[in-house]
Amino acid sequence: EPEVTQTPSHQVTQMGQEVILRCVPISNHLYFYWYRQILGQKVEFLVSFYNNEISEKSEIFDDQFSVERPDGSNFTLKIRSTKLEDSAMYFCASSPVGNEQFFGPGTRLTVL
Amino acid sequence: GQQLNQSPQSMFIQEGEDVSMNCTSSSIFNTWLWYKQDPGEGPVLLIALYKAGELTSNGRLTAQFGITRKDSFLNISASIPSDVGIYFCAGSDPPFGVRGGADGLTFGKGTHLIIQP
């Protein structure tokens, strides 16, 4: 069964550094999303992406964040200058045309 | 922003028992989804609900979309050890009548299900 994949599974970085989190959505899906989950808390929406542009973004998704679909398969989340509070699990999700969003296994980001 | 209130926060049950959890919102959602998350993994979609009053089953799981569009419940019958995990409700509110789209999901805080042998 097709799955969303994410790399790396764990990223450790120093405060102020840039990180890029990578995702490969399910191949015939058209909508892509990023979410984050701070340890022990609920999953929070960051951004959605459709037709090569951002469709919706939350208040969390400020100028430090950007997304890109550099080729036909990858979908990336960049954090330009990481802060301690960016430490969280980051989940990529994709959807065909409905609201059924399928999540990847996540990348654990640790900012030191 | 929109808030989902999920209860109970945790449940301690015996294997074989039935489980019921619910989610309420102060605002209307047009789609309700239920996910299960195991430690260190991503949420796995269990059931999707699109229509007020809809009752949908997936094996031992049954979920309903409330008539008011402001609530949903999930039942698990005859629980087994692998049911352990955190169950999240999630809602989205695309424009009425439009299914799908790029709307982000609003998640509840989860119900932590623990099964005692």
Q: Sheet with the most strands of chain B? A: 6 strands, mixed
Count every beta strand of chain A, where a strand is a DSSP E run of 2 or more residues.
11
Mean pLDDT of chain A, rounded to whole units? 94
| Uncertain parts of chain B | 96-100
Largest interface: A-B, 30 and 28 residues
Whole-Å distance between the termini of chain B? 40 Å
Oligomeric state: heterodimer
Task: Describe, in plain words, how this protein is organized in 3D.
- The complex is a heterodimer of chains A (112) and B (117).
- By secondary structure, chain A is mainly β.
- Helices cover 0% and strands 50% of the residues of chain A.
- In chain A, the strands form two sheets. In chain A, strands 2, 4, 5, 6, 9, 10 and 11 form a seven-stranded mixed beta sheet that branches. A four-stranded antiparallel beta sheet of chain A has the order 1-3-8-7, with no helix packed on it.
- The radius of gyration of chain A is 13 Å and the shape is globular.
- The mean pLDDT of chain A is 94.
- Chain B has strands spanning 4-7, 10-14, 19-25, 31-37, 44-49, 55-58, 61-65, 71-76, 85-92, 106-107, 111-116.
- In chain B, the strands form two sheets. In chain B, strands 2, 4, 5, 9, 10 and 11 form a six-stranded mixed beta sheet that branches. A five-stranded antiparallel beta sheet of chain B has the order 1-3-8-7-6, with no helix packed on it.
- Chain B has no helices and eleven strands.
- The relative contact order of chain B is 0.33.
- The termini of chain B are far apart.
- The A-B interface holds A 4, 31, 33, 35, 41-50, 55-56, 58-59, 91, 95, 97-106 and B 1, 31, 33, 35, 40-45, 48, 50, 88, 90, 92, 94, 99-110.
TL;DR of this structure?
Chain A is an all-beta fold and 112 residues long.
Would you spell out the secondary-structure blueprint of this structure?
The complex is a heterodimer of chains A (112) and B (117).
Chain A: E1 5-7, E2 10-13, E3 19-24, E4 31-37, E5 44-50, E6 53-57, E7 65-68, E8 75-79, E9 88-95, E10 102-103, E11 107-111
Parallel strand pairs in A: 2-11
Antiparallel strand pairs in A: 1-3, 3-8, 4-5, 4-9, 5-6, 7-8, 9-10, 9-11
Chain B: E1 4-7, E2 10-14, E3 19-25, E4 31-37, E5 44-49, E6 55-58, E7 61-65, E8 71-76, E9 85-92, E10 106-107, E11 111-116
Parallel strand pairs in B: 2-11
Antiparallel strand pairs in B: 1-3, 3-8, 4-5, 4-9, 6-7, 7-8, 9-10, 9-11
